[in-house]
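Interim report to the steering committee. The following record documents the input for Lipoprotein (243 residues).
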Amino acid sequence: MRYILARPFGLSLLATALSACSSVASLTADSFTFQGQLPPNFSMRAQAHYGVANGCEGRSQARSFESGFQDGPQQYRFKIPVSYRDGLCEMQLARVGLYIHGRYGEKDWQRTYDNGGLVLVDALPQGAPDFDAEGHLNKTAECTWLFQLSKAHSRKGQVSKLLSCKGAGAHLVRSELAGKTVRLDIQTNPEERPYRDDTWLRFPEGWKPCLPKEGWQRCQKPPLFQTFKMNGQECTVYPNCKE
């Protein structure tokens, strides 16, 4: 009697295990890979936003994927679900926000970021690139450092930087996304430039910050130059500090 009862129990366990395996395989198949290369001192964060697809009373959700900073170049690779179930609710990917972080010093304020995004659509806009025959979409974004004199009272007269990244995004057809690979490589422009035009003037030895007009941010004419602080030094020209 005990032996007869054990057989369906064992079969039940086997069926449960097979069901679990099937569920994991389904989740893996219903996702796409987001990957690429980052320069030194850069980090990528992808925030996937999901909406309820089957009319249940669930709320929109978000999942984050982040690479972290490294001193040298690094590869990032995220497996992002296109859809998943949360209880009775079917959650469907709506968009992926991208946050490209860069650091130019060791202090917390010497970190900044720019945005990008993966936009899910029913049909590609005219001229938007599509996946190739192998299911890959490759793009490159270029990030430029923009320098300025800090406006913060505690850092007044010091150089701070912002990040401007172009091409950090793509349009993706929602129904064709599962199982595909999106590659976004980040490159840095070797030439930095001022955050605002006509606030620094360029010379063969580098950039010099102007004293602004009264009530303006732009340079006086003829220009008068000011010193600034960088890495604890009093400087006259950026980025070399001394002329």
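The first helix runs from residue 2 to 29. The committee is asked to note this result when reviewing the revised timeline.
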